[in-house]
Amino acid sequence: FPIVHPRFDRLKRVLLGKDSCLKGSLRGIIFVQQRITTHVICYFIENDEELKSKFRAAPLYAHGSPATSSLSISSSIAMDTIKSFGSGHINLLVCTVVAEEGMDIPAANLVIRFDPMIHSVSMVQGRGRARQSDSQFVVLSERPDRTVRKLEEVEQQQLQIVKSFDAEKALSDGNLVNEQLIAAQVSRERGAMDILQKSSTVSEVEAVALLNLYEKKTKAKLDESFQKIAGSLWQCHLKYSSVLRSAEVSKEATDKKLAKRLASV
Hints:
This protein is of the alpha/beta class. The chain contains 12 helices and 8 strands.
């Protein structure tokens, strides 16, 4: 990197500064929009003299969608990467939206948004990954029309709408409300249909993430329960419920996590 883009320079300063504050205990997630950017940032860190001595970075995104014809991540590599991040062997994940919207990733104490955020949901979900008590959330780039301040205002407006919702009044409106709820749910489930279409070509790990994403997009209810059955087997029961439909499935495996992955597929 003989010539460093200003955002990479800001990223370097943030990483070194936060690592110093956290006395070498930094565990961070860098969110980007494009899969190829995960590899570029990892390459940048691995080839910078100051950064490579302090950080062990790895890319993470859906393995069903390669970054390029020669750059991709298998499901086994994705699982190993998450385990290594949990153990501390890797202290930086460079992720796309798959980690933002459902993949089971251990808590971080630093979350960095490398690219501009598109909507308030991205801000809330990304910020939610910084779950440790000493965690910090850093934004390196903003869109002029979607600054952090504007996205926070939208978030507060959405929260106010939820708080002001009167369930009794809504129910008293009878059939009109029911028709509106059904129409809204039809729209949400149609909009999320592409998520289900992807599910036939993804791994067990990605299936869990896609199912969580589908639940959020449709604003429906997804219940899960576990039961110990014969021998060392666990059974996972998943049930999806909305005003339109209900679907459920049960799968067994040697541990809870694997049973849930199989049920999700």
